[in-house]
Amino acid sequence: MSKRDIEILEFKDAKRAARTLYRAFDNDDVAKYTSRHLENDPVKRKEVDLQLYEAYIVSHIMKGIVFGIKGDNFEENDCYETVSLWVKPDSGALDDYITLIRSGFAKLAWNTGSEGRRRVFKVLFNVLHDNYHEIMKIDPNEENTWTLVYLGSIPESRGKGNVRKMFDYVFNHYIDPMNANTYLESSAVRNLPIYEKFGFRAVSDIWLGDKEDPVDKARMDIMIRGPDGSEWKYLKESREKFGYIIPEVSVAK
Question: May I ask which residue range the UniProt record assigns to the signal sequence (predicted)?
Fold first, then answer.
């Protein structure tokens, strides 16, 4: 197998994949929010961030599916070039007790402290869970939805076509044959035009923390791709319902 091929990752790959996400989202607002309480202790903060990514990866290996592209410098980088984490329609709940324990979220909860637990488990998890169902309940095809949880590339791999390769592979081999929706939360407004190239359209914005706070907040834009790359049937209706103002960077209004 070529180092540029897409692989399904296993438990043994989790630490390398976590380092990929850590490097990919180094300056991401959501990543900053979940460990902001440790900003005066950068060593501890990095440890907690890596634990969070590894727990996400292991839980999705357990119940979803995780893909990776090694790249030509896999051994030297000690991480993948690109990693993506997906929840499948048949994944079930990823926050059940056994999954939380086995994936490492329990270890994270102890290590990050009470404020970190609040930010991850009370704010992040609840906001993502509640908004998904609030947005998707309008669609009778809600249960036939794939969710992209993370898609990240290390800085030196950007521009190599890995994102297109990843999307084309997952759409062609998994999602489109199921006639399924695809759902994601973009944590950077500037990335909306990238996702729009693959058929996603922004539906609503959601926030971690107080969106009026000048620092301690994080915005995410919900984007949905309809079956086989079509426009989601409930796009305009949902935008009106949530009062969504389409960001200026969008090129597919």
Answer: none
Q: Which of 71, 69, 70, 37 is nearest to 169 (CA)?
A: 69
pLDDT at residue 101 is higher than 90: yes
Is 21:152 a contact under the CB 8 Å cutoff? yes
> Does the pTM exceed 0.90?
yes
Q: Is it the case that residue 93 has pLDDT exceeding 90? A: no
Give dist(CA 45, CA 38) in Å, integer. Answer: 5
Within 8 A by CB and 6+ apart from 4, the residues are: 69, 70, 71, 72, 165
CA dist 90 and 174 (Å) reads 13
- Assign 30 to helix, strand or coil: helix
Fold that domain 6-242 belongs to in CATH: Aminopeptidase (3.40.630)
**Type and span of the H or E element at 217:** strand 217-225
List, as own/partner pairs, every contact residues 130-135 make where C-beta atoms lie below 8 angstroms and the sequence separation is at least 24, other chains included: 131/204, 131/206, 131/222, 132/183, 135/183, 135/203, 135/204, 135/222, 135/224, 135/238, 135/242
Residue 152: partners with Cβ closer than 8 Å, 6 or more residues away: 20, 21, 23, 24, 25, 82, 83, 84
CA-based torsion, 117, 67, 137, 189: positive or negative: positive
Q: Any idea which residue has 């949530």 for tokens?
A: 242
Domain ranges of the chain: 6-242
